[in-house]
Task: structure prediction
Amino acid sequence: MNGLLTIGEFSRITHLSVKTLRRYHESGLLEPATVDDYSGYRYYDIEQVATAQIIRRFRSMQMPEKEVRAIVRTPDPDARARLISEHLTRLERQLDDTRSAVTALRRLLDPTPPTIEVRRILTEKCSVAAISEVVDASDVLGWYSEAMAEIDAVVSETTGPPGGLYDNELFTEGRGVMTVYVPTPDASSLNRIRPMTLHPAELAVTVHHGSHDDIDVTYGALGVYVETNGLAIAGPVREVYVVGPRDTEDSALWRTEIGWPVFAATSSGP
Result:
């Protein structure tokens, strides 16, 4: 047929296998220009090459066929751009998750993993401007950024680095109370912000160096210290962001203090 390509020719041009082209035809993702009624042979128009290449590229990026179909069929460029942007955002999130996993695994699998230094300290009473809410564990990072930005927009005078309190339920149940705060002498109530007093507490403290990709490994090492030293956890975990994203974009310079409120555990005999 003049101006039409056989499925084999179309496959060679687009780098989509014949099997894949048949499947795309059956699913309606990419239908041939015409199908011979007698032989059943599929023929494609030369103008379909670009569409096929777009589909191949999106599928190589793990975009679901349903979303690819929506992109190639919508005539609205803004709608197409929005769909593509949403998928790219998901890919970026997946890449971040993969990067975090790789970083943590390399540290865990190191034959001579670095040991952590743990200090036992008694904190001082501190006045802070804080936001507290029940948060899903999957939303912690986004919630933290929004809450801290809200505090930063209001608090001008600070007396120390920002920090956070994380209830045990965040780790054990995947949902719990989370508090972010900034030490300040003149905290006042505004929108979600409330004045709060951090009372003295005995903490087992270690410092996590670098990005938070493998901070769970440091948490684990601190937990081992607590258990092997006969201590019991007595409240929410405290984090103090001595140096963080607000201070430098170089994550290698970040310093996060992790503190578990503890007390000496006692066991009763039989």
About this structure: The two ends are 91 Å apart (CA to CA).
